[in-house]
Amino acid sequence: MKKKRKIALIFIILIVTICLLIVGYVSLNNNTSIDANTEVNNLINSSEYQEMTTSERKVACEELLSNLKKEGAIKHYSYSESDMLFSYETSDGILGGIKIQDWDPMFN
Engineering a disulfide at 77: which of 17, 43, 65, 66 sits with its beta carbon 3.0 to 4.6 angstroms away? Predict the structure, then answer.
């Protein structure tokens, strides 16, 4: 009898382990999660963004990055007033940036 109980217990542990691995895999590979870089690109490539002043761009970027942070798509972000640049790190560890002022064509 003890041998059958051990086999049953091992079988139950094996099934539970497999279920936990499947749940973990599905949650890690959930395609419904927000992709921070896609969201940033959607903003900066929009015609509305192109028409904004620098101060309006700053507000729009701050709002987007704040929302992405709340949703867990980015770990943190910061803003450099001197460079007019937002820097951020995605939840995947990828670094990104948004320069809110257009590049000076005279500067290489």
Answer: 65
Residue 81 counted as domain residue: yes
Within this chain, do residues 22 and 43 fall inside the same structural domain, yes or no?
no
Element (H, E) at 29: none
Same domain, 93 and 44: yes
Give me the domain span that covers residue 83: 36-99
Answer positive or negative: Cα dihedral of 55, 56, 57, 62.
Answer: positive
At residue 17, φ and ψ (nearest 5 deg) are: -60, -45
Coil/strand/helix, residue 21: helix
pTM: 0.66
State which amino acid sits at residue 67. N
DSSP label at 89? E
Work out the angle between the directed axes of helices 54-70 and 36-44 (0-180°, nearest 10).
Answer: 160
Q: Where are the beta strands (DSSP E) in the chain?
A: 74-80, 85-90, 95-99
Low-confidence ranges of the chain (pLDDT < 50): 26, 30-33
What backbone phi and psi angles, to 5 degrees, belong to 80?
A: -105, 110
